[in-house]
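Posting for a labmate who doesn't have an account.
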Amino acid sequence: MSAAIELTELTKTYVSRRVVRRGLSGLDLTVRTGEVFGYLGPNGAGKSTTIRLLLDLIRPTSGGIRVLGLDPRADAERLHRRIGYLAGDFVVDGRQRAGECLAFLGGLRGGVPARRITELADRLELDLGARIKSLSKGNRQKVGLVQAFMHDPELLILDEPTSGLDPLVQQTFSDMVTEARAAGRTVFMSSHIMSEVEAVADRVAIIREGRLVTTDTVAGLRARSFLRVRVDFAVPVAAAEFAGLPGVTDLTVDGTTLACRVDGSPDALVKAIGRHTVTGLRADGQDLEELFHAYYTGRAA
């Protein structure tokens, strides 16, 4: 499968008042054509820096960037026609009406049919007749989403796209992303919230302090999570019987109740439990938000 985005040893260093700060450090990343790629990390991790480098809004200190097979700097004009971009701080002229603004932006892209703008606005419940300065943050974000999607770009680059949206509109946005993927388009979306990308992403990358921590599918990340298990037995059991089992940690036994953490397959624990009469069993999977928080703070295994 071809690559929509290829980053090689990408580094961006900022210098302010003789203080050097690394925005990105040696980032290697490939986004495949036709996939939805979630780019996750806490605020200040380097997500927006990466996106601005992809669009040649800022220049790298070192390293290579290819977007849709082109150089963002040398081929900026051709490349921008093929990209839909939503900035994390989307700002347009507040004096314009939403429809006027979108028609103007459509004209800059060579023309977008009015019915396409209306269709997207209706789906997002955006009032095209309202002046932008009168819109709430969520409704201004809808304007940004319409302008990113309206010309059916090959690549969508979306920086914190659901910021300010209510849950129902977030679902509509997820549907739009799924439809874009089904049409063979690529979506690269950044977020600091796992739930925003969990339902739609094929793969996710986690970035922290300008460095790539991990890249995997959502299913792969789930496989790295653990179970919290509580078992109630008919009669007391001995902790020693369960202490050496593969993947079992944080084991406590209080009379007839066993509690533990299980990393990986619970098969060995299940077989050991099966030698006794069980009166109650509960197994809770680790929440993905909790797993991501562990990566964010550097506490993940």
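Reply:
Got it, the structure tokens are right above this. The CA atoms of residues 1 and 269 lie 40 Å apart.
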